[in-house]
């Protein structure tokens, strides 16, 4: 009998973390590495949020809190939903966890039984399928290709639904593609879901504020109020306020689900960091000007990267509506040979050769469930991005 749990055999380590780790190892060995694999804003957390955390320490707010968040933070979250999304929630319908990932995992673990299915549009965030598997469910991956703008269509959703479908996971704007669901597209999906009353929606809105051009963010419970009682809307402070390390995510949904998630959290991590909760409260209640300034910087970087990649032979890079990722196709590079002689038979081959030969770290598309693509995170400096685009272009021009 083996020592480790059989459930670990169902999942794999995060490919994004693996690529970031490999890039770090090469950098430590003296290589000049440009890391474009991590999904993390490179800006500092705004000053008033940092000050709120210091004030919390000085005030002695360093003890246990309620299991799934302080009342004052939950009230701030309710205010955010009312102000920005037109959604009315009570604090009893709010849960706070150690990052958005815990909110998602708690929801799945609290609701899935063996054989229950979760529809996941691909490309997807790498953790969705593995969280479903760890919770005992079955991921049902629906490819949403470049011709569909990397978005789930009502027809594809209808075809994926079975009597065992329990959840649909939607992420807009999306990691890894940056694709966003506009109101009309979201309405078409919610219209379909109204005809399937046993399916719940897990809406991952973590990139809500990172939107560009004339795109307008919408979330399912906002678009179709009749779905609200079977929607869990997840969000957090990590991306919008450059607070990835503070580890605060939150969710809003029906009270029975929120209570079940709190019960689960009470026997796992218990409360999120008390100091981080006070910082998150300041983020939600305080000045919001940081969001506009960071969005402007990310849009400039997006345009730089899209133009740079589309100048590379064999790469086709659509322009995303949000987040800080691009998801270009390398279909025209398959079957070629890298400048150093490596065969490029897959997107993983391409990314491995690119890292080893140019020092640019990106993540291969198979990790996100849709090939042949790769993901770039442009949450780094303009100079680094320009250097990376030049290296990628040189690599592609030398492929034969």
Automatic annotation (TrEMBL):
Xref: InterPro entries: Aminotransferase_I/II_large (IPR004839), AspAT/PAT-like (IPR050596), NHTrfase_class1_PyrdxlP-BS (IPR004838), PyrdxlP-dep_Trfase (IPR015424), PyrdxlP-dep_Trfase_major (IPR015421), PyrdxlP-dep_Trfase_small (IPR015422)
GO molecular function, one term: L-aspartate:2-oxoglutarate aminotransferase activity
Domain of life: Bacteria
Keyword hit for Magnesium: no
Limits of the Aminotransferase class I/classII large domain: 32-392
Keyword Transferase among UniProt keywords: yes
Descriptive protein name: Aminotransferase
Lineage: Bacteria, Pseudomonadati, Pseudomonadota, Alphaproteobacteria, Rhodobacterales
Subunit structure: Homodimer.
Family, similarity comment: Belongs to the class-I pyridoxal-phosphate-dependent aminotransferase family.
Keyword list, A-Z: Aminotransferase, Pyridoxal phosphate, Transferase
A Pfam family of this chain: Aminotran_1_2
Enzyme nomenclature, EC number: 2.6.1.-
Chemical reaction(s) catalysed: L-aspartate + 2-oxoglutarate = oxaloacetate + L-glutamate
Any one of the GO BP annotations: amino acid metabolic process
Names of the cofactor(s): pyridoxal 5'-phosphate
């Amino acid at each position: 009998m083996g020592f480790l749990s059989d459930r670990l055999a169902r999942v794999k380590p995060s490919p994004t973390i693996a690529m970031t780790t490999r890039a770090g190892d090469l950098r430590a060995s003296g290589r000049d590495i440009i890391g474009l694999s991590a999904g993390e804003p490179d800006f500092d957390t705004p000053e008033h949020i940092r000050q709120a955390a210091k004030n919390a320490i000085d005030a002695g707010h360093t003890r246990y809190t309620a299991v799934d968040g302080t009342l004052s933070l939950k009230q701030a979250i309710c205010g955010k939903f009312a102000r920005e999304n037109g959604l009315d929630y009570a604090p009893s319908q709010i849960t706070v966890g150690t990052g958005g990932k815990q909110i998602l995992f708690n929801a799945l673990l609290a609701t899935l039984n063996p054989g229950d299915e979760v529809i996941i549009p691909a490309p997807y965030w790498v953790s969705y399928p593995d969280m479903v598997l760890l919770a005992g469910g079955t991921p049902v991956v629906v490819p949403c290709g470049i011709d569909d703008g990397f978005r789930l269509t009502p027809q594809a959703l209808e075809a994926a639904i079975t009597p065992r479908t329990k959840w649909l996971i939607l992420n807009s704007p999306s990691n890894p593609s940056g694709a966003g669901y506009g109101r009309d597209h979201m309405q078409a999906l919610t219209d379909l879901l109204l005809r399937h009353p046993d399916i719940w929606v897990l809406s991952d809105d973590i990139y809500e504020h990172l939107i560009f051009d004339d795109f307008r963010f919408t979330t399912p419970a906002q678009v179709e109020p009749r779905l609200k009682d079977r929607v869990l809307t997840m969000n957090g402070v990590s991306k919008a306020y450059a607070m990835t390390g503070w580890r605060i995510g939150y969710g809003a949904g029906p009270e029975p689900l929120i209570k079940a998630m709190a019960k689960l959290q009470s026997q796992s991590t218990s409360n999120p960091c008390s100091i981080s909760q006070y910082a998150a409260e300041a983020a939600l209640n305080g000045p919001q000007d940081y969001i506009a300034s960071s969005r402007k910087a990310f849009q400039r970087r997006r345009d730089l990267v899209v133009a740079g990649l589309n100048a590379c032979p064999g790469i086709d890079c659509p322009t995303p509506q949000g987040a800080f990722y691009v998801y270009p196709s390398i279909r025209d590079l398959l079957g070629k040979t890298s400048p150093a002689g490596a065969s490029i038979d897959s997107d993983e081959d391409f990314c491995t050769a690119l890292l080893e030969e140019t020092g640019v770290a990106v993540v291969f598309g198979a990790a996100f469930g849709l090939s042949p693509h790769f993901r770039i995170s442009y949450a780094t400096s303009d100079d680094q991005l320009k250097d990376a685009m030049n290296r990628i272009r040189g690599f592609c021009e030398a492929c034969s």
